[in-house]
Design brief:
Strand content: 5-15%
Largest sheet: 3 strands, antiparallel
Radius of gyration: 18 Å
Structural class: alpha+beta
CATH superfamily: IHF-like DNA-binding proteins
CATH architecture: Irregular
């Protein structure tokens, strides 16, 4: 099983869904879990790049990634753009009819939102998603002796 960078150790239960996804993806694509993880990281990096340039990325049947403008009510705050994901109707219905209300993770989402909020209105610069994806890919490569990027 692949070690998921940044969420192993005491948070290993958080890695389990992603590990299952990568295992099924690798099986369906006929590749290794490492290759599936690397492709996933590259894909998400490019989605983030497109969205951060103001473009919409639509995945039919899944949803839409985009940036939306936030306009504060207070005049001393500057407006800014923030990324959003809007699930397709089919994805919404799948969750509505498959996910029981007791399995929702509202408190997890609320904690995540608070930890990743732009409280400083963008004044404090944090690590960009691209640096995080580069580190993720480097960690995946380090798990495979003799990794060769040209080997597809």
């Amino acid at each position: 099983m692949i070690r998921i960078p940044f969420i192993n150790g005491k948070h290993s239960e958080k890695a389990a869904p992603l590990q299952r996804i990568l295992k099924r993806t690798a099986h369906d694509a006929g590749c290794t879990e490492m290759k599936a993880a690397f492709v996933m990281a590259c894909f998400l990096e490019h989605v983030a790049a497109e969205v951060s340039m103001g473009n919409e990325v639509s995945l039919p049947g899944f949803g839409l990634f985009t940036c939306v403008a936030w306009h504060p009510r207070r005049s001393d705050l500057m407006p800014y753009a923030t990324p959003r994901f809007y699930a397709s109707r089919g994805f919404q219905n799948e969750c509505r009819y498959s996910c029981l209300p007791g399995t929702k993770r509202n408190e997890t989402v609320e904690k995540y939102r608070k930890r990743n909020a732009l409280w400083d209105n963008g004044k404090k610069r944090t690590q960009m998603v691209f640096s995080a994806m580069d580190a993720f890919k480097a960690n995946i490569k380090a798990q495979v002796p003799g990794w060769d990027e040209t080997d597809n």
